[in-house]
Amino acid sequence: MKRVVILLFALLLLANSAAYPQTCLPEDVAYKIKNEGFSKSQIESLAQFMTDDMGPRLAASQLKVRAEQMMVEKLQEMGFSNVKIEFAYDFPKGGWDNKMNYVAMTAPYYCSFAANPKAWSGSTNGLVKGECVLVDVKTKEDLEKYKGKLAGKIVIMPSTQTYEIKFTPLAKRYTEEELEVIAKDPRPNPMRRRMDGGNWMAQRELQAALTKMLKEENVLAIVSSGGTFNVPSSRGVQYKVGEPEPTPEIVLPLEDHARMARMLSKGQKVEMELNVKNVFTDNQKINNVYAEIPGTDPKLKNEVVLLGAHFDSWHGGTGAADNASGVVVMMEALRIIKALGIQPKRTIKIALWGGEEQGLYGSRGYAEQKLYDTKKNKKLAGFDNFALYLNVDNGSGRFRGIYLEENDMAVPFFETWKKSVESLGFKTLTLRRTSGTDHQSFTRYGLPAYQFIQDDLEYDRTYHTVMDTYERLSIEDLKVDAVIVAWLALNAAMDDARIPVLPGYPKAPQVRR
User: Fold this and answer.
1) Reported pTM
2) Residue 22: which pLDDT band, with cuts at 50, 70 and 90?
3) Which residues of 360-396 are buried (b: 16+ CB within 10 A; e: fewer)?
């Protein structure tokens, strides 16, 4: 009986040891990574390449296709292996690029505006001028009072935002107290999602009816409000290849839009002129760009440590904080590892996703093609070779820790690995979930895929606006982030153990509606 107990204990110990890190790279490797990342950094040149040189990278646009080719050439120049562009997902909206954008108020006086056309909206017929009409529709019945009265007019939609003076700093870093709160396990008191599907559907139906009516009325353009500090935001409209070109739609910052809305509500005459040219292309596909450092261990080389960031952006600005920052961090991390000459046991792969802004298209395509067949509800070959995914998509703020998505089994790994980079501020491990970016394409299958806790800086103020340019980047923070990614990725690639998939997974993910 005693032998049986000893044997069971030994088996239990062996099973547990397979789930926890067997190795952490020595401090001399951490030193080399930091030295390479800080004294020989290419972050600044990569950031300029991604923003100034590439420009905006809207999904499926001509500029995005151009950027893909530029990225392939850059990754090959950096010496990575298996560099390629690969189809990820069908994209019925097709490509769209803005070629001309002039918007001004001409009465009661002249004022040119900083404006941004909505993606996939149509063009004006050259320079057009017209009287503005404030249209306020809250129910389908309200549509009737405008029918037959809007032809040749420029429609000003009611504002959905107001401005209030804020007495908080524009940029901030997490305090130690805030990080302590984030680190607490949220599961004893989970937040309940409030569902209001009926109201959402009603609003969507009303918007569709309004868009249809304005198209039938033959209005010159539709002007809505988005953004503050005279900086318009970036948005899109519903469209599919083959449909009639939508009515031209323009986004003005709150200040300019509200000025005209106030004057119109008082009965004053307001006129505008516009010259907007947009080009549609029949490019109905989302692509990803890949590169890697191949693994060398005979048993582990087919396993993948995946580094990801979305490559696409909105069309305003140059997509700097969202998400050139994430792309350059992953490129620099891979460069650091290659520069050290260490041959990883597992393959370390970089994936630059397309179409994240339109619905995680690129990462979803990768998951469905290589990891899990959602139609047959079964694992694919890549599932069991998926070692870890690290994602960056919250601007250029410094990494303060990582969201471990309720995977308790990941904690010992990161507790071990983070010791050598705690001096850089990377200290907080939380079992909280976070949302809104590409790691969710993998966590839905229970896979170890994580997003970093980052200092917010000016991110919430500037992303998805025409202000999202090189100037929004904290180069020094990005250097730190790249060093941390390189260290974590190399440890994950060299460790004999792996973070386990969540118990009960994989299972068919819930269908999006």
Assistant:
1) 0.93
2) low
3) bbbbbbbbbbbbbeeeeeeebebbebbbbbbbbbbbb
